[in-house]
Amino acid sequence: MGVAPIKMPQLGESVTEGTVDKWLKQEGDYVKRDEPLVEIVTDKVNAEVPSPFEGKLVRISVGEGTTVAIGTELAQMEVEGGAPESEPASAAAPSAPAEAETVVPAGRPTAPEPVSEAADGGSRPRLSPAVRRLAEEHDIDPSRLQGSGEGGRVTRDDVLAFLERREAAPSDGAAAPPAAAPAAAPEPAASPSPRAAPGAVGDPREELVRLTAVRRSIAEHMTRSLATSPHAWTLQEVDVTELVRYREAEKEGFQRRHGSPLTYLPFVIQVVCQGLAEFPYLNSTWTDEGILLKRYVNMGIAVAIPDGLIVPVIRDADRLGLSDLARVLDDLVRRARGRQLKPEDVQAGTFTLNNTGATGSVASQPIINQPQAAILTTEAIVRRPVVIGEGIAVRHMMNMCLSFDHRIVDGMMAGQFLGYVKRRLEAWAPADVQV
User: Fold this and answer.
1) Whether residue 406 lies in the annotated active site
2) Which domains does the chain have, with CATH numbers?
């Protein structure tokens, strides 16, 4: 018998850390190979990680709610025949480990973080990427902070506390004068009610909802996106009356023939893919060397889940027909809502589509899914009177909203792309179906 380490796998390109959301097995449990072992959350995916070995789980090294770097030991397993020399293929090879902010739940042991050399020749604990980003955003020198973490590590709470003190200080930088001692006063009358004043600490009408790993990852990803690229936004309305009529007439037969529901998204995906071929800068990535144009379309589809949003990817969407798009889309949405997505299901997206109309929205301003150049929303389809020629008719109208990286795309190109998609959807006919 030997002991084999279970390490944090690489759950997506450019991902440097992950959060242990939930252990599915406990110390002492016997675990089969490929049996779900732990739920891991990153800013790319929320996934169940299978056990790379078969054996007894003898130690959980990282507690729930803890964020650690790729390659960090999560647990130890007692296996037959001694410890393997290396991780099996089911656990992706880690990249160079990045430091990670660690929030240690009570009762969970954790190893101290490694230290790096300070400028003065001494040493200090490393900063996690999240803490470093927070300090840089607010122009804070971390060396000025007194760390409260293990070994003097500067934590996120240390940075936030410093910000609160800095904002509360007088603007001229001078220390606030001490308050004069109050004059003696008679004992106040008893309050008629013990109820706290509005906004006071401990107000019974307030509730603190702790952040889940998913919500924290989404918050950091959205903040990083807005800080990375200058967002611009535009909207156009589309008459989708003919598309609505076709879908209403064909949806039951399509379900019987293909086993997948016929929604509006596969039609939009096809037209958007054609538009991206005409305007490739909308399907690109900004780099220091230049703009990287993608001559393929991996379409990200935003899917709402109970505690957030996740974006599975339809690979090579520009090569799929309508029925294949409907089938793949249905499969990804089902697995996203059932927390059954694999790491590869959320990687390598080149453009994102979000059907915000499902919530009744008629206009939205989406945030770009980095490192992509743009994101498109389809809003609610509503019936309303529209001027056509010299008359008025009731039509099915839908808004499309586009957010784009203004470093890559200017307003004219964004409008041309959106206009292309609008014209293709408005002129849509059954003969355009590519099955």
Assistant:
1) yes
2) 2-79 (2.40.50.100), 115-164 (4.10.320.10), 231-432 (3.30.559.10)
